[in-house]
């Protein structure tokens, strides 16, 4: 009786232990399929975009000049001084090298293409779908489609507008790959994995247990990493064992790590100038202050402001203002190389922190920087914009950051009220 009950308990325990393994195995298969498929689709999109950009650059290099429709009865398409109406060799070579179909549209009409109809002729002089014309040609925006129908075939496709030198949209470039080829590749890649895991689950429960336990551990490490990142810890580190995996989970780990880096860049970097933003500048200034206190080294803090920036915006427009900010940011970044860091502090103001440098040396560097700013010539619509900057610099001290910045800002204010284009220390 006891032996019988013991057998039933053992069987029950085995069944209970196998059921989660089977369920977990199925979940893993579904998750793996989803992520692997999405990764493949993302890779296709990236490769299509890359080939499209390279193709446009290649066409511009081989046929310099603008696109133009020439003729009255028989129309021909020119690129610069060369007739490209029948320049099929170029698109055919691109397809040969990449395995991707290429089509060049002039306005809404196919001019060059590697796609053939059922009769064996190229599908030139045909148009694209109305949705694509609206979203790409009319909106002047590149778009990726995962199920665009071309000549009756579903394509993964990337459409990008073509421009003449004056910025007008004159057509589109299509780069695509039949969807069936991508789906076949996904299936061929996944079927062996699905069968192997399924058979392993059925035949070797113990092996499945250890295998799935390893996967669960990896997923938990990924979860912990994502939890840390979602909690605001952009400096969190993913367990190295996740990145060492040569499977989909390793790819997921790499993707999540790339996501963290992108988020960190978005959080730390000003979008326009690509300098540190205000939040990251505060954190970096704290680090400089801590290092200066630990190593007993000097540092200096300066705030700079573009003189009469509102006049530039009002006179030339905000696009010119953005170009001015970007040019100034690049100049500041170059001058601050190996001696500290620079950040966009707000509007046309910039924060400059000089590491291992006292106020006197910082002032000398700022005066050289001013000379470079004065020599800047920013071209905009057949005009040249010049500018000056005013800086306030103060000696770094181990005080509250807001007080330190207030001192630099007061120096800047003194410079602005006393004539601008100067360094006040």
Describe the protein's architecture and organization.
The chain has 425 residues and is of the alpha+beta class. The chain has helices at 2-62, 88-98, 130-138, 179-203, 205-230, 240-244, 248-268, 278-295, 309-316, 318-335, 359-375, 401-417, and strands at 67-70, 76-79, 82-83, 101-106, 109-113, 143-150, 153-163, 169-178, 299-306, 340-346, 349-355, 378-380, 383-385, 389-395, 423-424. The strands form four sheets. It has a five-stranded antiparallel sheet. A hairpin with a 2-residue loop joins β2 and β3 (82-83). The N and C termini lie far apart (95 Å). Residues 1-14 have low confidence and may be disordered.
Rough outline: flat
Question: Percentage of helical residues?
Answer: 55-70%
For the biggest β-sheet, the strand order reads 5-4-8-7-6
- Alpha plus pi helix count: 12
- Give the H and E element order: HEEEHEEHEEEHHHHHEHHEEHEEEHE
Q: How big a fraction of the residues is strand?
A: 15-25%
Distance between the termini: 95 Å
Q: Rounded to an integer, what's the Rg over CA atoms?
A: 31 Å
Low-confidence blocks of residues: 1-14
Task: Please report the total strand number as a whole number.
Answer: 15
Mean pLDDT: 85
> How does the major sheet shape up?
5 strands, antiparallel
Structural class: alpha+beta
Features of the shown structure:
5-stranded antiparallel sheet, about 20% strand, about 425 residues, 12 helices, alpha+beta
Give the gist of this structure.
The chain has helices spanning 2-62, 88-98, 130-138, 179-203, 205-230, 240-244, 248-268, 278-295, 309-316, 318-335, 359-375, 401-417, and strands at residues 67-70, 76-79, 82-83, 101-106, 109-113, 143-150, 153-163, 169-178, 299-306, 340-346, 349-355, 378-380, 383-385, 389-395, 423-424. By secondary structure, the protein is an alpha+beta fold. The N and C termini lie far apart (95 Å).
């Amino acid at each position: 009786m006891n032996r019988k009950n013991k057998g039933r308990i053992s069987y029950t325990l085995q069944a209970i232990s196998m059921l989660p393994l089977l369920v977990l195995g199925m979940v893993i298969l579904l998750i793996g399929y989803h992520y692997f498929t999405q990764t493949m689709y993302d890779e296709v999109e990236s490769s299509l975009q890359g080939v499209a950009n390279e193709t446009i650059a290649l066409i511009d290099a081989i046929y310099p000049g603008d696109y133009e429709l020439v003729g009255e009865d028989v129309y021909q398409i020119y690129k610069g001084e060369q007739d490209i109406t029948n320049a099929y060799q170029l698109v055919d070579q691109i397809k040969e090298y990449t395995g991707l179909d290429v089509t060049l549209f002039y306005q809404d009409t196919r001019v060059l293409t590697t796609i053939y109809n059922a009769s064996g002729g190229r599908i030139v002089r045909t148009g694209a779908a109305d949705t694509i014309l609206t979203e790409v040609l009319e909106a002047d925006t590149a778009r990726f489609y995962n199920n665009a129908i071309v000549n009756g075939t579903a394509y993964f496709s990337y459409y990008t507008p073509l421009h003449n030198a004056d910025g007008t949209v004159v057509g589109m470039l299509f780069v695509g790959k039949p969807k069936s080829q991508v789906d076949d590749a996904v299936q061929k890649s996944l079927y062996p994995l699905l069968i192997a895991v399924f058979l392993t689950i059925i035949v070797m429960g113990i092996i499945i247990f250890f295998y799935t336990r390893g996967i669960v551990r990896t997923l938990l490490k990924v979860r912990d990493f994502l939890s840390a990142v979602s909690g605001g810890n952009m400096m969190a580190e993913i367990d190295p064992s996740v990145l060492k995996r040569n499977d989909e989970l390793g790819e997921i780990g790499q993707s999540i790590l790339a996501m963290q880096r992108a988020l960190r860049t978005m959080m730390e970097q000003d979008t326009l100038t690509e300098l540190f933003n205000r939040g990251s500048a505060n954190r970096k200034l704290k680090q400089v202050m801590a290092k200066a206190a630990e190593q007993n080294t000097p540092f200096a803090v300066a705030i700079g402001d573009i003189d009469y920036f509102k006049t530039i915006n009002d006179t030339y427009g905000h696009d010119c203002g953005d170009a001015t900010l970007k040019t100034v940011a690049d100049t500041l970044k170059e001058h601050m190389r190996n001696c500290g860091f620079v950040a966009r502090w707000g509007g046309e103001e910039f924060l400059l922190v000089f590491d291992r440098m006292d106020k006197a040396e910082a002032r000398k560097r700022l005066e050289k920087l001013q000379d470079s700013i004065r020599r800047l010539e920013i071209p905009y619509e057949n005009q040249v914009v010049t500018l000056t900057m005013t800086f306030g610099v103060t000696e770094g001290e181990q005080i509250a950051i807001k007080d330190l910045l207030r001192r630099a800002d007061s120096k800047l204010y003194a410079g602005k009220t006393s004539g601008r284009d100067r360094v006040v220390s």
